[in-house]
Amino acid sequence: MRFHSSEFSVQSRRKMEIIDVTGKVSGIIERSGVRNGLVNLWVPHTTAAIAVNERDPDLWEDILSIMEKLVPVRGDYRHNAKYGWIPSEQNAHAHILNCLIKPSITIPIENGLMLLGTWQSILFIEMDGPQTRTVQVHVMGE
Length: 142
Ligand code: ZN
Description:
This protein is an alpha+beta fold. It has helices at residues 22-32, 57-70, 78-82, 92-101, and strands at residues 2-11, 17-20, 37-42, 48-53, 104-110, 113-114, 121-126, 132-141. Bound molecules: zinc ion. Zinc ion (ZN) is lined by residues 79, 89, 91, 95.
């Protein structure tokens, strides 16, 4: 049983943005030497998240637009009022979305490859950018 711990950074350029990180995760799995097992991705942030979905920038805009309708960036949030003197803390919408989308996913690995379906990619979801973010990667298996 191997346990390989690693991480990579993601640079977002917009307030809300979806970034495909599938290639970065594949590279880490390859270097880990694990052929069969699991990879867990952990986003150590309260205003970003990670998901598996289709690699289609138009769909990503649809997702972001629905997220904005569900939990608007501007709203009567107690968190924003409490930290009104810190411009970067006007981000209650991002904390709420983080609870809905979750900061972690686990994907099976078989013969050195993630068992992603044809239309599945790993998507990092920025909800309070632009920022430099970290994704922690733990590969377990043999
Ligand atoms: Zn905050």
